[in-house]
Amino acid sequence: MNSMKKAYTIDQQIARLKSNGMTFDDEEKAKEILLDVGYYRLGFYSFPYEIKFPCLEHRDHQLKPGTTFKSVYDLYEFDTRLRRLLLNALDRIEVNIRTKLIYNISLKYIDDPCWFVNRKYVTSKFVNDFEEQVYAVMRKNPIIQRHHANHPGIYAPAWKTIEFMTIGNIITLYDSLKEAEAKDLVANAYGCSRGVFYNYMETIRVLRNKCAHGGCIYRMDFPKGIKRLPADISAECRHNIKGGIDVVRYILGRISQSRKKDLKNDIQNLISSIQTPEAQKVIAQVSKIES
Q1: Does the N-terminal peptide bond of residue 230 adopt cis geometry, omega within 30 degrees of 0?
Q2: What is the pTM of this model?
Q3: 12-68 pLDDT, tens per residue?
Q4: What pLDDT, on the 0 to 100 scale, is given for residue 226?
Q5: Under a CB-based contact definition with an 8 Å cutoff, are residues 284 and 290 in contact?
Q6: Are residues 235 and 217 in contact, defined by beta-carbon separation less than 8 angstroms?
Q7: How far apart are CA 110 and CA 156, in angstroms?
Q8: Cβ(46)–Cβ(60) under 8 Å?
Q9: Residue 84 and which of 34, 124, 127, 270 are 20 to 30 A apart at CA?
Q10: 75 secondary structure, DSSP code
Q11: Are the beta carbons of 134 and 170 closer than 8 angstroms?
């Protein structure tokens, strides 16, 4: 889809798509979709159909012969529905990671309910930054406010405070634990070494943020690379969405094998529901996800 220097009407958008080589089965339905999704956003999903894909330089937006509006919209629908499936799984994973961190580390440092700001257990940098970067916002939380109204102390105990941390905060806290034994208590619960667990948590964080903000995920990239084992990530998928999904499925399997199986089936059913062969081909080639 051509970048536009000024706004165009729906009819002009259709005309430009045609000039790029796109064909339409139902122009009225296409207009409805363009008004719903948006010309610019739909362009994220026409990109793999371009003759010059994946080249980003000197794009002329000309499409491969046979590219239909339906095939582009099918890719958009796949991405949207995949995002919802992954968000459900990621929410479950986030809750579990938070719970295991609270449980294991709070019992290890049982004499200090606020171990997360104790320099004996956590790096000084995390402690120094905690009030401004984490707890200042949390102080507005009604549950935390009620705690402070009824209990002494600067901070609420770990089981209350960490419950309201973001996944990013939790990953930073885990990385800031001083004792290797403490990190192992959490990482080993997922069948991982410390380094791999941190890598998988970072993968989950990046994927969750992308999904939560409605990002385009079918061809997203993980620049740092995903550790191959124990999630059995293939070499070609260490940087793409298939690798991210494999991490989600692996961690989910450590929580519940039935949930892992359900996610696999849901994704396979989603791919099978895609009507246009062109969109299925793009999914297999770009996302590396196959039914």
Answers
A1: yes
A2: 0.92
A3: 999 999 999 999 999 999 999 999 999 999 999 999 999 999 988 888 999 999 999
A4: 98
A5: yes
A6: no
A7: 15
A8: no
A9: 34
A10: H
A11: no
